[in-house]
Specification:
Elements: H1 3-21, E1 25-33, E2 36-44, E3 47-56, H2 70-86, E4 93-102, E5 105-107
Parallel strand pairs: 3-4
Antiparallel strand pairs: 1-2, 2-3, 4-5
Length: about 110
């Protein structure tokens, strides 16, 4: 596993633990379909969250949140539609979240 993948996996693990600590149940991690990947799919009180996790070790290439551009958002939306089309559950609300992790600081968890 490359160093970049290790950092990404660590960030996704941290984000999953943070979500669990806020009462979310993790339905899927690294959900892959023909339209792309969703890092985390979680649910809390019939609210479904599609979560993109971005982990950075520096700001030399901009902030982590800035990397979730229109193209990436489109992939996430299409993958979410695919997930929902095959899901047998009904959800009251659907959310799209970006959790950014920079070094040892987690930002973006204001639900």
């Amino acid at each position: 596993m490359t160093e970049k993948k290790k950092i990404g996996a660590l960030g996704e693990e941290m984000a999953s633990e943070a979500l669990k600590g806020r009462g979310y149940y993790i339905l899927a991690r690294n959900y892959t379909c023909p339209y792309g990947e969703i890092d985390i799919i979680a649910v809390k009180n019939r609210q479904l969250a599609f979560v993109e996790v971005k982990t950075r070790t520096s700001f030399s290439h901009g902030s982590a949140a800035e990397s979730v551009d229109y193209r990436k958002q489109k992939h996430i939306r299409n993958a979410a539609r695919y997930f929902l089309a095959y899901s047998k559950k009904n959800y009251e609300k659907i959310d799209f979240q970006v959790i950014t992790i920079s070094l040892n600081q987690i930002m973006g968890l204001e639900f």
